Every structure is written in structure tokens, then in C-alpha cells.
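Quick start: read one record
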Amino acid sequence: MAERIAVLMGGVSAEREVSLVSGAGCAKALREAGYTVSEIDVGADIAALVAALAPKPDVAFNALHGRYGEDGCIQGLLNLMDIPYTHSGVLASALAMDKAEAKRVFAAAGIPIAESKVVTRDELVAGDPLPRPYVVKPVNEGSSVGVLIVRPGDNQVLPDDLEAMPETLMVERYIAGRELTVAIMGTDDDVRALAVTELRPKDGFYDYEAKYSDGKTEHLIPAPVDAAVYRSAMEHATEAHRALGCRGVTRADFRYDDTDGEPGELVLLEINTQPGMTPLSLVPEQARHCGMEFTELVSWMVEQAQCD
């Protein structure tokens, strides 16, 4: 059994503040579960991180979000240092973070996805790459960072709209309807989906602010959807987890278009290999719904930790 746990948190991505909250919550729960815990605020200095990880802990609890912490980079470093870590390995993390590559894997596995294109900012400014409405998002970001919805009647996308976005973007068909999410736990054949939650933002869409601001979004668990759709969401979530080779905990996000009645169109948007672990986060909420308290959840994650 692992005893000494290093919680990696912070990071250098746009999701740094969320990661700090996730990390602090996980560290507190792990101490309550009886582990000896150190907290490491990860920055851009790799030598400093290596030094902070000496002497080697039994497990690194990866509470980082976004680039560097979620895309296979930190996983590769931990592999080299022979430190078991929570969540997915290098390949699964890199694939899931690259939305275009993940979509290719999902399509090959027969999981329904929305049509999309990868374009440059200049191509997007020059004209609509897909019929409106469509969604513009960075190819390699999480937490709905930098998401833009272009609707019929909107002015043409202008450079100012894209100023903070990277050069390469994904343009995806907008799916009307509801936002659903499913938490998944396990590895290989021992994988299970926990529940389906419907997310109802009180204003606009489920963006970064709606995800991490208390009172901005209503969580309905179990989601009040057609029973067959509920089962399909659970099945597609586990299929996506397996298709990418994920392990530990992930979260699959869906859009469900029931505007013409149920059952409607269910589409997988992405799978998140480092889902949030804040007080407002969805995985801990679904775990509680299934009878697993937060300390039990993080303890399970630690005991499942491994290197690639």
C-alpha cells in the first residue's frame, strides 16, 4: 500500500487556478485517509520539480489540468523517474488532449461524434468553414477555455474574437439541446460508468465560468433523459475510455439534441483524462451519488496508480 503521496497542482496552463483548488482538496482528503502528503506547486522549472520529488514518493497524485499536466508531458517525466501516478498514461493523455486525434479514435470505435474541421485562424477569418451554427475551440485545451459559438446572423468572425486563441483551431458542428456528462472509473476490462448528469447553465452555455462558479449551473443527477439514451451515454463513455487506453478516472462530455423529442441525437464531444476535483466538480458528485465519499475516491485513485 502506498503511504507517501505527492500532490502535483497548479501548473502553467490556463487552468492553473482550478488545479490549485483541485490539488488542495485532494491533499486534504488524502491526509484524512491516513496518507502522508506533500503538495507541489508545479511551474515551468523542470529541475525544480525533479528536486521537489526527491526523495521519491510512493505515488504522485496528478491534480494538474490543461497543457503540460494533462497532455502526456508530466506523465512522461514521472515514467522516467519511475514514480507511479494517478490517471492515464502518456499515450491516452496525449490523444485525449488533442481533440482532432481523439475524434479519429472515437469514430473508429463507432462512437457518435460531431462533424468538425481543423483550421487556422486566418482560414476562419476568411470565411465559414462549416454551415452555421458551429463551435470554435482550441485543439489542445480543456474546461471550455477559449470556446466561441458562431450562430446564424452573427457578424463574420473577426481577428479580435480570436486574439487569445492559438493558431490552430477546431471548428465543430453545433449540437443543440442538453449538456450531459459521465464519470468513468477503471482500466482495461474492469471499467464502469458511474452516472449521467445533466448540466443546465443558468445563463449562456457551459463555459469556464459556468463550470467553476458556484450557482452558475444546475446539476441534475441522474439526468432526466430517455432511459435508452441514459444507457447509451454510459456505454459510449466506457467505450471512449477503453478506445483511448485510459485508466483511473475520466469524464466523458456529451451533447444531447432532443429538440424534436426523445430519443434524440447523442454526440460525444470529448473525454477528459484529468477531470476536476473541486467542490463543484462532477466526478466527486457522481461518486457520492453511487455511495463513494471523496476520501474513498481519492484513495482508490492512489491505489490504482502506476507508470506506463
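The two ends are 19 Å apart (CA to CA).
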